Amino acid sequence: MNRGALAIAAALALVPADASSAAVAATDPWPGAAAAYLVRVDGEVRWSSNDAARLKPASLTKLMTAILAVETLAPGDEVKVGKRAAAADGARLGLRAGMRLPAEHLLAAALLRSANDACLALAERVSGSEARFVATMNARAAALGLADTHFANACGFDGPGHYASARDLAKLADAAVAHPRIAAIVARESSVAKTLDGRTFRFDNTNVLVGRVDGALGIKTGWTRMAGRCLVALAERGGTRVLVVLLGAQDRWWDAVAMIESAFEETRARPATVTPPPGPARR
């Protein structure tokens, strides 16, 4: 069992039965868990801390890149990897300049492996250059009402003018999973990317909640030196959806599982709302 799975198992074992009542009573149920966090149940914010702060989002940025890619490119559209994409730093697939891949394979690599070479190849294919693509990212952020978000690059590198809030990232996550192609990819435990000449790249989802936490549906991890450990996680049980956003988390797996389990437990503990039948009509 890998380190992420061990953390999840430990968190599931140690979330107390009364976690929901403790969370309701506390202003900040998880003090120090993250620089900012937000927990939402069926669209309603249940708990949050510092959720409007403008912080580095790391590769959670790729959610916007994915949205623009699926709106522009069909799954089978061919993408040629350029020199800048092939030279991308950080997490990468190992693409070389001149390789050609279907857009959907690069999308999977960007979302699951968080591959910066795949991400930049998509951005350049959509807009011709990363600079033009980033301008489109910021226009879409404004259209979505993301008042505390600004992008300076397509993939999530630290830099001046590159920031987002937990509150905005929750909205961005909604917009991303509203696209069936994105929702299907982020729910996978692993995937492959194949070049048109037959080279195969295999990779696992960096979100270790998927396949290990009941109802986990994705959606994206991130890490940089300045951002710390970041996560947007979505889970659904019995028709109830819980979304967790963590920025600069001390232990994103432990805390995400605790938040998810507490949210579901608190929802189950709430008394059912009964609407009385209408009274006799007044005459």
Give an overview of the whole structure.
There is one protein chain. This protein starts with a helix and ends in a 14-residue tail after the last helix. With 283 residues, it is α+β, with helices and mostly antiparallel strands. The longest helix has 18 residues, at 252-269. The protein has one domain: Beta-lactamase (3-Layer(aba) Sandwich), CATH 3.40.710.10. The strands form 3 sheets. It has a 5-stranded antiparallel beta sheet with strand order 2-1-9-8-7, with helices on both faces. A two-stranded antiparallel sheet has the order 3-4. It has helices at 3-14, 19-25, 62-72, 83-86, 103-113, 116-127, 130-143, 166-177, 180-186, 252-269; strands at 34-41, 44-49, 78-80, 100-102, 190-194, 200-204, 216-224, 228-237, 240-249. Strand 1 and strand 2 form a beta hairpin.
Helix/strand-derived category reads: alpha+beta
What would you report as the Rg, rounded to the nearest angstrom?
A: 20 Å
Strand segment tally: 9
- Counted up, domains total 1
Uncertain regions: pLDDT < 50 for 5+ in a row? Answer: 1-7, 10-26, 272-283
Biggest sheet, in brief?
A: 5 strands, antiparallel
Shape: globular
Q: What fraction, in percent, of the residue positions are helical?
A: 25-40%
Q: Based on the structure given, which CATH architecture is correct? A: 3-Layer(aba) Sandwich
Overall average residue pLDDT: 89
What percentage of amino acids are in beta strands?
A: 15-25%
Strand order of the largest sheet: 2-1-9-8-7
Please give the alpha-carbon distance between the first and last residues: 70 Å
CATH fold-level label: Beta-lactamase
What is the number of helices?
10
CATH superfamily: DD-peptidase/beta-lactamase superfamily
Order of helices and strands: HHEEHEHEHHHHHEEEEEH
The level 1 CATH classification is Alpha Beta
